[in-house]
Amino acid sequence: MEVNHVVKPNLQIRAFYLFFIILNIQTGLGILGAPRHIFQEAKQDAWISVLIGGVIMHVVVVVMVIILKNYESADILGIQVDVFGTWIGKALGTVYILYIFGVLLSSLINYIQIVQVFIYPQMPPWLLGALLILLIVYTVLGGFRVAVGVTFVFFFLSFWLFFFLYEPARLMDLNHFKPMLEATPKELLFGSYQAGYSYVGLEILFFIYPFIENKKKISMPVHAGVASTTILLLVVTVISVGFFTSITLEHLIWPALSMYKIIEYPIIERFDLIVVTQWAMVIFPNFILFAWLITYSMKRLYGISQRKVLYTIATLLLIGIIYIKKQTIISQFIATISNIGFIIAIVYPVILLPLVLIKRKLVKMKEKSK
Amino acid sequence: MRKQPIRIKHGKNSDFPLSIEVLKQKVKEQLQNIPDILFQQYQIQEKDILIFYIDYQINKKQLDDSLLDTILNRDIQWSTDKILNEVPIGNGTKQTKIDKMVTELIAGAVGVYVVGEPDAITYNIAKQEKRNLQKAETESLVLGPQVSFTESLATNLNVIRWRLNTHDLVTEKFIIGERGQSEVRMVYLKTLANDTDVQTMRQRLQNLVVDELEDSSILSQYIEDNSTSIFPQFYLTELPDRLCYAIGKGRIGVLVDKSPTSIIAPSTFFSFFESTEDIYMRWNVGSFLRILRFVAMFISVVVTPTYVACVTFHYEVLPTPLLASLGQSRAQVPFPPIIEALLLELLIELLRESGARLPTKVGQTIGIVGGIVLGQAAVEAGLTSNVLIIVVASSALASFTAPSYIMGSAIRVIRFPLIIIAGLIGLIGVTLGICFFFIHLIRMTSLGRPYLLPAYPFNWKDMDNSFFRLPFTLSNTRSTSFQPKDMRRYPKQKAQTKKDIDE
Prior knowledge:
- Chain A is mainly alpha-helical.
- Chain A is about 75% helix and about 0% strand.
- Chain B has 18 helices and 14 strands.
- The longest helix of chain B is centred in the middle third of the chain and has 30 residues, at about 285-310.
- The interface between A and B is medium-sized, with 37 and 28 residues.
- Chain A: Pfam families: Spore_permease.
C-alpha cells in the first residue's frame, strides 16, 4: 500500500469546505444531549468545561496538522503503515473502520430514537432506518464531491434552526450561573470529557487530507470549524443551564430539543417537531461522510470496490437498527462509542505525533548516510 | 449525408449522355413516379434542351426570370458550359449521376440537360414555406424584445446575426438523422466560449446516431447528461434575446432546423428561474422578482405535502384557533387528507392540461367553469375543505411563475410523490423527500458542469447573477461558473466614476 495517496484533480475540493465538514460532523447529535452530561459533572460552571474542551480540540488540530504536513499527501491509513509497518498499520486502520462504523450506527440509532420519542412512538425503527439508508446509499454512490456538496448545502438549509434559540435565551435566569467557579478542576475536566461525544468526528481530517486542493491553507478553516463548534456548544450549554433548573436539566436526555418546545407562533404551536424533522438535514451529512469514509478506507486498505462495501454496510446498518432496540443498550452503546471516540480523536493523535517525528528523522538520517 | 446506393452502368462513371425519353423515365423511376415532376422541352438551334423540376419545391419567379428568360431569348447553340456561363444564378453545379441529381431536385433544384452533353446542370432555387416572425407565446414578456424564433433555421440564424453582428460568431453545422436529415447549428462566440464546453457539445452532436430529429426539445433529451432525471438540464428558449444574452456570456446555443426553440448549454438549476426581464428591470426590482420565484418554487413544492402531513399526523403543530377552523371545514369531508389533496391536485392538473389543449376561446371558459364552479361545488358537496382549496390553488399558481415551462411542469410533478410520502409517514417523510431532491440536484451535471452552480461548488462572485441582481456598476463580470475566456464585461472603475458636482 502506498503511503501517499494522490487524488485526481477533479475529485479534489477547496480547503474552505473543511470548515463546513468539521462543523457539520461535530455538531450532529452530540450537541442535543451534551448540556446535560456536562452539567452533571461541572454544574453551573459547565460553560468553563466547554471552553476547556474547545482549547483541547484546538491543540489536537495543531497536532494533526503537524502530523499531516510531514507527508506530501498521506492519510492516516498510509501514515500508520509508514510508522508501524504493514501488518500493525493495517490492523490499526481496521480498528478505525470499525470505530467509524460504530459511530455511524450509533448516530443512526440515536436519531431514529429521537424521532420515535418526539413524533412517532408507534413507528417501527426499520422504516425510517431503511429510508435513511437508501438516501445514504444514493448519496455515497455519487462519490466524495457529492458527499461534500450535501454537507455544504444542508448546512445552509438547516443552520437557521440555531437562531430560534433566541426565545429560550430571552427567558434565561442568570442566577442559575451563581455561584461561579465553584467546580473543582477535576470536575471541570470531567465536564469537558463528557462533551467528548460532540467533538467526535475531527478525525475525518486525517482521512480527507489527500482530497484537499490547496493543502497549505487547511489550518484556518479547520480551526474556524472547531471554534464554531465550541461556540455553538457553548451557546446551547449556557442557554440550557440558564433556562432549566438544575433538577430538570439533570433529567432531560435532549435538553436542546426540549428548549425548542416553548417556541410558539400564530401558525406553529410545536416548534420542536419542526426541529426534530429538520434535524435530519443536520445529521444527514454525518451519515454520508462516515459511510463514505468506510468505503474509502476499505478500498485503500484492502482494495475492495467501494460499491460492494457500501452495499455491505447498508445491510449491516439495517440489521443493527432492527436488533438494537432497548434504551439501556442504546445508551450503553453510545457511551462506549463516546469513550472510544475520546481516545481515537484526542489521545491517539498526541501519541502518534512523536512517533511520526522520530520515524521521519530516521528516514532522513538514512538518506543522509546513503 | 446518407450514402445513396451507387449503381454502376456500362462500367462508366457518368450516366450521361442520354436521350430525352430515357432521362425522363429514369428521373421518374427514381422519384417513385410522383405526378409533381414537370418536364419542359425546348428546341433552340437544333439542340434539344430539357428543363425539369418538382413543381412546389422551387421558386417559380426565379425560374422564369433568370433561367428560362436567358435560355429562350438568346439565339445561341447551347452547351452545358455556355449555360453555366450565361445563366445569372450562382449555384449551378454539373451532375453526372442521375441519383445525385434527383436528390438535388428533392431539395428544390431545377435540372437542365442539353441533349448530347456528358453532364446535366442543377440550379438550387428552392422555395421554403415559413411563417413570419411573431410574438413569443410560451415565454411571454412585458418588457424587452418580443420577437420569437420561427421554424426556419435560415430566419433564426438571420435574427441571431442581427443581434450579434460580430465576426466572432461561430455557427458550426451538423447534419443529424439517418432517415430524415436535419441541419443543426452550434452557435457560440469564438473568443468567449469555454473550449472544453464547445468540444463536449461538438462531440455529443457528432456522436449522435438517430433515425430522425423531430424537434430541438428531443435533441436536448438525446444529448443530456442524466436522462433519468425529472429536471431539464438544458434551457429551451424561443426568445432570440435570451439565447443571445447567454451566448454573449460565453455559453453555447444549439439551433435545429424545423424547430422554433433553441437550446442553451450548459444551464444551471437556478438559471431556469431567471427571466431576461430581470435584467431589463431595474436591479432592485429584478432581484425582488427573482427571489419571488424561488419563494414561489418553495411554496409550490412544500405547502401541500406539509398540510397533508400536519392534518394526518401532527395536529399538535397547529395552534388551537387554526385547528378549530380547520376541523370545522374538514368535518364534512369523508376522505383522509392524502386522498383529499390528491383529488384536488388532480383536478387542478386536469384544468391546466385541458386549458393547454383547447383553443384559446374555449380554454378561458373551461378555466372559469373548472376553477370557480367546480371548486365551490366540491366544497359544498363536502368532498374537500376550504383550506385545502386555498393551499392547492396557491401552490399551483406558484408553480406557474417559473419562466421555463419544462421546469414548472417538473416542479408540479414532484409534488405528487411528496404528498404521498407525507400522507404515509408525515413531516419526516417530507424532509427526507426534500433531502432526496437536493442530493439529486447536487449529483446532476449539465454538459459536464455541476448543475447546482454557483451554490455548490460555491462561487461567491456568481451569486449576483443567479440569486439576485446587483447594479451594473458593481457587477461588471461574466459569471465565472462557466469559465468564459474573458471574464470582464467592461472596466469597473469607469463604471463607478461619478459625474456629479466635482465633475
